Amino acid sequence: MTRRDLIANAALALCWLGASTRAGATAQRAAPLILVLGDSLSAEYGLKRGSGWVALLQQRLLQQKFAHSVVNASISGETTAGARSRLAALLALHHPTHVILELGGNDALRGLPLAMTQENLDQLTLMSQASGAKVLLLGMQVPPNYGADYARAFAATYVTVATKRKAALLPFLLRGVADRADAEQWFQPDRIHPREEAQILLLNNVWPELKKLLP
Asked: Among 68, 94, 98, 193, which one carries the catalytic annotation?
């Protein structure tokens, strides 16, 4: 084999390698992935690892033959502002096909302005959609001691953002847990975080809305 033949073969091999690498990268980007960006309600606060509703979501996807993987980027104590500062890097790293936003509760606990919370939720939704992901907003409600007017305005922030951005919405993640007669039995002693037994109820709230977005 001549030197010219060796060079030609090497060039051909590099072309095949480049094509294979590009195909692999495309396949990786195309792999369906659900990014969950939330606070302690999604970060398994006070629970054993693998028992929270996000982990149960991955199990259900497998059971129902969906190819989606789940990345849980939730952090206990997270605010909408904190999540907004992290989202761009998460989108670039994971290339999610779906983003679930479970945020806002800590904004209320800290007394942050509702306008700020709404703006952050709006931008989180917009950034996710701009990356090509479908968005599901998980709404939250505040306890009665916050006052009826504030409670209505807080709940309305999720509706406003979802309507504006045409995103999917679950109005109240804790439906059937926080609003039941025996609610105290379903929460940890802090009366904020649901017990392990309640996690399946949270998933059952999320699942119908998420499933509508899955191919």
From this structure: 193
pLDDT(3) > 70: no
Taking the C-alpha atoms of residue 108 and residue 141, their distance in angstroms, rounded to an integer, is 9
Q: What's the CA gap between 49 and 55, in Å, rounded?
A: 9
Q: Which residue matches tokens 């495309």?
A: 26
Q: Which of 40, 42, 74, 128 is catalytic?
A: 40
Q: Where are the domains of the chain?
A: 1-30, 31-211
5, 149, 182, 190: which is the annotated catalytic residue? Answer: 190
d(CA 188, CA 195): 5
Q: Which CATH number fits domain 31-211: 3.30.70.1520, 3.10.290.10, 3.40.190.10, 3.40.50.1110?
A: 3.40.50.1110
Active site residue 40: yes
pLDDT digits (tens, 9 = 90+) for 136-170: 999 999 988 899 999 999 999 999 999 999 999 99
Q: Per-residue confidence at 28, pLDDT binned at 50, 70, 90?
A: very low
